[in-house]
Amino acid sequence: MMNPHFKLLAMAVVLLTLTSTCLSAFAHEEHVFKAPWDACADAIKTQQCAYTNAHGDLFKGTCRVFNEALMCVRNQPIITAEKVTPADVAEVTVSSHHDSHENH
């Protein structure tokens, strides 16, 4: 016969495992941030790109294929909103403009 304390402990472990699995699933369920895809909407593969999040942080990267669509994949450090300069934005805009003409 199983000890009642062991049975309670086993039940707690099972519930904890199930809860932690469900919580991690819910944490990503509604995580649909469209900016990385929007940044490459009019781009070509390997073109430089950038986008900002709701806080104004700047993410720079290159357009890559993901789920049969291009998305901006960050490959540089995140520039926090308070450190973003007009030069940071212009650098990506100019590079994207040049890249798109080089590959046509």
Walk me through this protein's architecture.
This protein has 104 residues and is α+β, with helices and mostly antiparallel strands. Helices cover 45% and strands 19% of the residues. A 3-stranded antiparallel beta sheet has the order 1-2-3. A hairpin with a 5-residue loop joins β1 and β2. It is elongated and about 70 Å long. The C terminus is likely disordered.
Helicity range of the residues? 40-55%
How far apart, in Å, are the first and last alpha carbons? 76 Å
Beta strand %? 15-25%
What structural class do helix, strand and pairing data support? alpha+beta
Count of extended strands: 3
Radius of gyration: 22 Å
Biggest sheet, open or closed, and with what strands and sense? 3 strands, antiparallel
Query: How do the strands line up in the largest sheet?
Result: 1-2-3
Give me the oligomer status: single chain
Order of helices and strands: HHEEEH
Helix count equals 3
Q: Rough shape?
A: elongated
Concise synopsis of the structure shown:
The chain is α+β, with helices and mostly antiparallel strands and 104 residues long. The protein contains 3 helices and 3 strands; from the N terminus they run ααβββα.
Which descriptors would you attach to this protein?
3 strands; alpha+beta; 3-stranded antiparallel sheet; 3 helices; 104 residues; single chain; elongated
Topology:
Blueprint lengths: L3 H26 L5 H4 L9 E5 L5 E9 L2 E6 L11 H17 L2
Antiparallel strand pairs: 1-2, 2-3
